[in-house]
């Protein structure tokens, strides 16, 4: 017979596993519990049974089968759905993680494995003194991007322990609140805006005073270039499908590291995911500027983004002399006096990289009079059999459209053709040395893209028309305050390309202590001999020789942003109704459908014309509706569809940022736009 007390009891046995490091102490503890016991009470009962005096405040229950944390301690076991067969592990929420930064340095630090990745990245960025953490995320390197070595030798392993920067004792890493003063824009500048070296107060960011200076130096200053042999061993994408592999491993920002099978001491990549670098300020962003520069540098060296030979030499010149050599000597530079700093800040304000590029002018625009451009330009129309028809017409640029006429006198009548540039792709086709200043326009039409090439006579004409085309593609006119800064940015980039030969550099390249193979991609190393590369890099250097360290990095970033493929993240997709795979390029303001075989854009869709998007989680299909009854749907083949869904929502979230707002992120809005309902 069973007693009435036992019969009415609803207790049951639950086996709990404790993740601790104490030797000779059991790790499994059976407890008798009831369904109405809350999670906090279960913790208390377990700690009392363990009988080990230690701080258990960072511990929580991880449910192995369901792959979830039981963080709501006021919930009962019944509400959580915990039953006798549940495998609960009592483990720390903060664990050690290795992060490979954009500058290829590895840091080891303690990260929350229970917080959503978005929050974890925010904490990591506070630790590393990087503002605007919403621009970054964590990436798992896919197996396809890890080059298989033919031989397993000791030299081909991951970086040795001495190359890892250990930041596990920093305040945020230890679970303590960060020093908000160092993260505030209102305090005294924490970096020298000329050299980018940390101010003395910044050293308090790292709790270990003996390694503080070294830590800041590694994060804020550029490293010496890698050897050509090391560069050759790294993964270099050859096709669009290869480039798609680079973006397959982004972690889900709405789930924790533990939920995504990230293990303690595992290595992840910390990268800028969203290419909208908002409010860059040399006084506070030396680490951020350096890491953006490094991500751009490696993207160019590994040919993750295409650039011309002329552009490659500019990038090489900025690396070789300014960033590499000045970084090595920046610690010995004296602080600049206040007047000089003011002049540098004024110069750098023109280089500030924002969402749309350039700063707003203080001059009031006459909004009733929209400017126009009118010039003789050459129109190039591609013909079949590789023949091109080139003819000069009188072009008029007004609002967001280009009209062209037979000549200036006939401009009062009907144009031969009117091209609406809103939503088009604008691609530069420039070779300064050959005096070629072309603009390639890919204009959306019903059955794809209409190609139009414009040829300008000189740099000034090209800069004005190119800037107008770029703004028109975004739906803006030349009355917009960003037009003049855009013109100046284009002229500045052209000026860097327009170098003259230095006789001494050309005749005596062997006198220069430089390995040019370290500064260009392997393709150009094979194309030119070492002396030829050195001489050509020295030529390019003539126009960048007077820049400061931070200005050189900002110029490098700006030149990177000027490349046609900048900011595109590629994915292999299958569009609904299509019988072949295509590539989808995701940018900050548009989606581009690209032919996988030829690499040519097929169609462009702007976010500004998007009405709504959603995901059918059962069939993993993304569906998007645009204005004018345009709808598209596709499944993602190279990654989970959640990654593209998060990219779209993330870029829309970033477009809501404003300098007038405080530094606090609207995390709830981010998850509303990117989370999805699976």
From TrEMBL:
GO terms for biological process: cell-matrix adhesion; integrin-mediated signaling pathway. One of its GO terms (molecular function) is integrin binding. It holds the Pfam family Kindlin_2_N. Coiled coil: none annotated. Keywords: Cell adhesion. One of its GO terms (cellular component) is focal adhesion. Residues 378-474 form the PH domain. This is FERM1 protein. The gene is Fermt1.
């Amino acid at each position: 017979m069973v007693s009435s007390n036992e019969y009415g009891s609803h207790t049951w046995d639950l086996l709990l596993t404790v993740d601790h490091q104490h030797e000779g102490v059991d790790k499994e503890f059976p407890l008798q519990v009831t369904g109405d016991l809350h999670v906090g009470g279960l913790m208390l009962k377990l700690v009392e049974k363990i009988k080990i005096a230690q701080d258990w405040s960072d511990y929580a229950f991880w449910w192995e089968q369901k792959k979830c944390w039981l963080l709501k301690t006021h919930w009962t076991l019944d509400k959580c759905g915990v039953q006798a067969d549940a495998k609960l592990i009592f483990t720390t929420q903060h664990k050690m993680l290795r992060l490979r930064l954009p500058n290829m340095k590895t840091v080891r630090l303690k990260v929350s494995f229970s917080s959503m990745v978005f929050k974890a990245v925010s904490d990591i960025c506070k630790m590393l003194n990087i503002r605007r953490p919403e621009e970054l995320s964590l990436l798992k390197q896919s197996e396809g991007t890890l080059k298989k070595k033919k031989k397993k030798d000791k030299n081909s392993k991951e970086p040795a322990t001495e190359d890892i920067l250990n930041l596990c004792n920093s305040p945020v890493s230890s679970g303590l609140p960060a020093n908000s003063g160092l993260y505030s824009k209102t305090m005294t500048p924490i970096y020298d805006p000329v050299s980018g070296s940390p101010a003395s107060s910044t050293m308090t960011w790292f709790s270990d005073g003996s390694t503080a200076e070294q830590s800041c130096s590694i994060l804020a200053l550029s490293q010496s270039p890698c050897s050509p042999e090391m560069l050759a061993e790294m993964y270099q994408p050859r096709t669009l499908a290869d480039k798609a592999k680079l973006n397959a491993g982004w972690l889900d920002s709405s789930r924790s590291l533990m939920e995504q099978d990230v293990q303690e001491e595992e290595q992840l990549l910390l990268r800028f995911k969203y290419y909208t670098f908002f409010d860059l300020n040399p006084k506070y962003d030396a680490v951020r500027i350096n890491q953006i520069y490094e991500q751009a540098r490696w993207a160019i060296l590994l040919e993750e983004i295409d650039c011309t030979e002329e552009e490659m030499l500019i990038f090489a010149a900025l690396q070789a002399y300014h960033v590499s050599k000045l970084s090595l000597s920046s610690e010995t530079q004296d602080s600049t006096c206040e007047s000089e700093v003011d002049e540098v800040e004024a110069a750098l304000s023109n280089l500030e990289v924002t969402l749309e590029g350039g700063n707003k002018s203080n001059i009031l625009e006459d909004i009733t009079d929209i400017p126009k451009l009118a010039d003789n330009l050459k129109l190039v129309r591609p013909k079949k059999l590789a023949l091109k028809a080139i003819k000069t017409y009188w072009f008029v640029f007004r609002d967001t459209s280009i009209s062209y006429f037979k000549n200036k006198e006939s401009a009062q009548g009907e144009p031969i053709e009117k091209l609406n540039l809103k939503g088009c792709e604008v691609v530069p086709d420039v070779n300064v040395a050959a005096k070629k200043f072309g603009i390639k326009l890919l204009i959306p039409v019903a059955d794809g893209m209409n190609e139009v090439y414009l040829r300008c006579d000189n740099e000034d004409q090209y800069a004005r028309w190119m800037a107008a085309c770029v703004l028109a593609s975004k739906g803006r006119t030349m009355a917009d305050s960003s037009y003049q800064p855009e013109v100046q940015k284009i002229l500045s980039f052209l000026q860097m390309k327009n170098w003259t030969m230095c006789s001494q550099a050309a005749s005596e390249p062997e006198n220069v202590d430089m390995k040019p193979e370290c500064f260009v991609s392997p393709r150009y190393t094979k194309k030119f001999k070492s002396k030829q590369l050195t001489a050509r890099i020295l030529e390019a250097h003539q126009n960048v020789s007077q820049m400061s360290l931070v200005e050189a990095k900002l110029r490098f970033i700006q030149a990177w942003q000027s490349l046609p493929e900048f900011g595109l993240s590629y994915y292999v997709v299958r569009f609904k109704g299509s019988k072949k795979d295509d590539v989808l390029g995701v940018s900050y303001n548009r989606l581009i459908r690209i032919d996988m075989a030829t690499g040519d854009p097929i169609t462009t869709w702007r976010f500004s014309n998007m009405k709504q998007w959603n995901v059918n989680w059962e069939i993993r299909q993304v569906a998007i509706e645009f204005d004018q009854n345009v709808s598209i749907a596709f499944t993602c083949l190279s990654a989970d569809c959640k990654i593209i869904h998060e990219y779209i929502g993330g870029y829309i979230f970033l477009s809501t940022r404003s300098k007038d707002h405080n530094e606090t992120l609207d995390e709830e809005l981010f998850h509303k736009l990117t989370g999805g309902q699976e």
